Amino acid sequence: MFKKIFFLFFVICLLFIANKIYLNFEYLIKSFNNNYLSLISLIIISFFFQNLIAFRNIFLLKKYTKISVNFLEWQRIFFNSLLFNSVVILVGTAYRAKVLKNLGISYSKFVTFSYYNYSLYIFCSLLFIILELIFLGYTNLVIFYIFVFSILLFLIIFYFPNILNNLLKFIKFKRIANLIANVFRVIFLVKNIFKNLELLKFSIILVFIVHIFELLIFYIICNMFIENLTLKSFFLLFGAKFILDKLVLTRNLLGFNEILFGLFSSLLGFDLAITTIIKTIHRFIQIIVTLINTLSYNILNKFLQYYKIKTKNFHDK
Predict the structure, then answer these.
(1) Ranges under pLDDT 50 in the chain
(2) Who contacts 4 (Cβ-Cβ below 8 Å, separation ≥6)?
(3) C-alpha span between 27 and 33 (Å, rounded)
(4) What is the Cα–Cα distance from 280 to 21, expressed in whole angstroms?
(5) Contact of 281 with 221, CB cutoff 8 Å
């Protein structure tokens, strides 16, 4: 029953977006024609952006685990997992964990690194967005509360293991205690990562570079469809997109996530249909670029394997 309701809800969201695209089709075609160079730039920058994300992951992972893996092979693994995640949430992450296990990275180390990498990315990105909004003149209480929330989030991530450890001493049910202890043992490991100042330094630098790329990509696509877009309005839209994509469990709900973004944007005075379509186009461009990267690295790795076999056979003769 739940699956049927979810499927019906999914179809309604897609029909809503399809209707908005149909009603604004001429405007969209005109925008594409007037900004075709921007569209090409958007695809190229998105291509490099996704490769930067892959590089960031393997660079930091090597700093943490000293893993030895071929760069091209890692790109293939990463983009395969990214494609799987775009279809079913966390399937790609599980695939990546399995492959890395075969390369000598334990599940606990993988989870620890992923937890550290994602939490630091969220915290730093939120901090950058807050600073940008303050710089643009948004110094009201909302910004203050977001800043306090970010600090509290970081402190909870960092100190919660110690609090939990003390609480576990009062739990009488050993099975429950062991289960919780195993889960949060990983968080204790995360705490130790934060003490690695060299890793922390590189992580923050790479998050900042990723943030610049995210801003650039979203600005290009917004500027294609929204006339007279101000920096203040853009950064508010970007902040809303970031929260919906990273902090709310709607990212993989195709259609619903886009409609939520459109509804929030309408509160800022933007056209609901156009902003919903912008978010939809942004998603599909990322999917297309992911497909391009996945196919490219799979083909390239297959070719290199074939070349190595041929070369080996030639030398054996």
Answers:
(1) 141, 163-164, 167-168, 170-173
(2) none
(3) 10
(4) 10
(5) yes
Q: Model's pTM, two decimal places? A: 0.84
Which candidate, 282, 132, 159, places its Cα nearest to that of 222? 282
Euclidean distance between CA atoms 275 and 267, whole angstroms: 11
What are the tokens at 17? 């977006």
Residue with tokens 């909302």: 142
Per-residue model confidence as pLDDT tens digits over 248-295: 566 777 888 899 899 988 888 888 999 999 999 999 999 999 999 999
Residue whose structure tokens are 């606990």: 108
Task: Tell me the C-alpha distance between 97 and 105, whole Å.
Answer: 8
Contact 31, 271 (CB under 8 A): no
Report the length, in residues, of the chain.
317
For 282, phi then psi, to 5°, come to -60, -45
* Nearest by Cα to 211 from 244, 231, 235: 235
